[in-house]
User: What shape does this take?
Amino acid sequence: MTTERKAETLGFETEAKQLLHLMIHSLYSNKEIFLRELISNASDAADKLRFESLSNDALLEQDAELSVRIDFDKDSKTVTISDNGIGMSREEVITNLGTIAKSGTAQFLESLTGDQRKDSTLIGQFGVGFYSAFIVAETVEVRTRRAGDPGDSATLWRSNGESEYSIEEISKADRGTSVTLFLKEDELEFAESFRLKSIVKRYADHLSLPVMMLKENYGSSEGDDEDELQSPEYEIVNDAKALWAKTRSEVNEDEYKEFYKLICHDFEDPLQWSHNKVEGKLEYTSLLYIPGRAPFDLWNREAARGLKLYVQRVFIMDEAEQFLPLYLRFIKGVVDSNDISLNVSREILQKDPAVDSMRSALTKRCLDMLSKLRKKDPEKYQSFWDQFGQVLKEGPGEDFGNREKVAGLLQFSTTQSEGSSQDQSLGEYISRMSSEQDKIYYLVADSLNAAKTSPHLEIFKKKGIEVILMYDRIDEWLISHLREFGGKPLQDIARGELDLGGLEDVKEKKLQEESEKALEGLTERIKTVLGDRVGEVRVTHRLTDSAACLAMGEGDMGAQMRKIMEASGQSLPESSPHFELNPQHRLIEKLNDEQDEERFEDLVEIIFCQASLAEGGQLKDPGAFSARLNKVLMQIQ
Assistant: This one.
């Protein structure tokens, strides 16, 4: 019996109130998910106890057989999920149950779309699965005692999912947590043995922790008085064997999917998975998953990440980040090894040669899984790319040994992929190159539209040469670490003087040289007007429609990298782009004939500002530009 001693009523945070209201009234269409979430939480509590007991076996309290127990009573309209795991202290109860996903609630609320089905899939990613209990329950009670704490220091948490919750100090003989749901009138199906068993078999059959329920014939209302005095008899209702410990032939596709949802608290199916057992110098089993949706904290490189680590089926660490590089932080799953000591600390684990070997092999397996997915199902890979592509782009700069393999997985828009739902790989680009083309041409811009309309593409469109369009903020950083692919150097078409190599014909080359000589006087006059705002004024053959453009110097930092550096607080010297003229454009011809120096200066300034705008740049003095443009327009007769 529990004894109430001290009660306190506390209020949920404002964001928590909003979240509870949404979950109770609109989000869940699949109500049975609550049982999966509570069983999963119980499993996590057992794993944490196993880990802490490695250094303090007194925490087991002569009760080393860990399990989850489900009790139900249709007359009292209750379902109780209990575990003998690590439990929670009073402070942990307030932190974990009173604030609701304290690091992600605001982001979760901002992510809601109003589509019930889509919104419900977000919940598992924000660590708020416990609150799915309120979808079927009017009131939820949590009784918990942390392992190692005295029996009279347990905590009772109670809430009806509205604005407040109460917390009391109680006595609890055994460690762990029990969650009691007082079911709503229209949810009494969840107090039925058959219904509960079917949910457990579906969602938790391959949980390594046994899930116990009362035997079918126990507690029947037709039993006699002697039966009622019997101790409850429980039976295991799940397989209770770690799924990853089975062979692939023993596990079907649905079981892989449900196991992923269970261990990752996700509500969507994974895109792909890889189950593998390694034997030899090292012995370990891995089950790796590619999620279907990116978590809200994907771009936080300091956020918790990694695989669940087991050693000979004993849980060691929930987020073992040492087994995969940072650019694969979206990969979820389990690794179970026979070759890592049970008593290692995190620091020793990082230096363990066995870990280094496993990290290399697991990284290769992840990249192979992605490569197979791309070949087998390009549409599904595109879905992956839309969610995780920018993170994968970190790979070439962080993993030199796998740089070419990672680069082969990258996808980009190109001038020939317009209208297609599929981005293109570097390998596909090379396969379409003509025999005369010896470089991979690309263009970096602030947006896809800015890239598509860039004047730098004009000569390439005319000649039918495909150009890769890069507009993610990480692209310029990526290219600084990926100078070539498949033996072909990558060339920025907006950097330096354009050299098309074998794609140029002799006539074009000769015409360019003649134009340069003919306009030497004009380039000098323009350089005088623009001064040190430009590095060089020169004639170019990269333009067919535009009058002029700006090109970076070979060693200049691009606009993307400059923005990243400035955002991190670094001050950078101003760079001076090269101002390039189209000798065939009538405006340049007219400028060459202009004798009025004031009008000449106005035209030069207008053309220079237009070129800057075409590159996605910002004018330092928009007012002066507008005044000059109006002045020239007024002179038109």
Notes: The chain has four domains: 6-235, 244-383, 410-502, 504-634. The two ends are 99 Å apart (CA to CA). The first helix runs from residue 14 to 27. Residues 6-235 form a domain with the Heat Shock Protein 90 fold (CATH 3.30.565.10).
